[in-house]
Amino acid sequence: AQTVTQSQPEMSVQEAETVTLSCTYDTSENNYYLFWYKQPPSRQMILVIRQEAYKQQNATENRFSVNFQKAAKSFSLKISDSQLGDTAMYFCAFMTNFGNEKLTFGTGTRLTIIP
Amino acid sequence: EPEVTQTPSHQVTQMGQEVILRCVPISNHLYFYWYRQILGQKVEFLVSFYNNEISEKSEIFDDQFSVERPDGSNFTLKIRSTKLEDSAMYFCASRTSGTDTQYFGPGTRLTVL
User: Fold this and answer.
1) What's the mean pLDDT in B85-93?
2) Which of B9, B38, B42 to mutate to test the interface with A (most CBs of A within 10 A)?
């Protein structure tokens, strides 16, 4: 079974600073997908960024980027120039290939951006 | 931009009652999911649905749960006889074919008294 571990229950950072959230996972699969979802106080789950395991290049979406280390089974999220609106729970999630569609989530990191 | 919608946003029910949670997936999506999140815990997969049948279900999705796509737009989750431990946020998600990204609705908060 796949597992996702987020070892930082809470983090806080000053506005405009950079913060990195960590995620590790365990799988015997070779092809899979990794995601970061954001859950603000409204509790809606919003996709932040995704990474395909067969791609060596790290995904980037504006201020959000990942550091994907396949051998180490690590998938960290870097938020640059953090903004107050980034305050949220962040969940790392894993999915194997299309035949097994369920997302397996980590326990989340509560990120607070301090003005 | 198309969104997944869910109704109601909050449902309060008595233990033992039946509840139906409703979702309208994005219109061209073919794959549908339900997840739940007990307060303070991680999001857990319940069930996936494609071509009018269940693709996969978790251990949580026991005989008390059922899903249905009654028409071309709605996707429902029914809990036949609610328990206190069913209190949670329930999220619907959908995706189109050829992509791996699931898009989530805003969730329904279910409170069982």
Assistant:
1) 96
2) B42
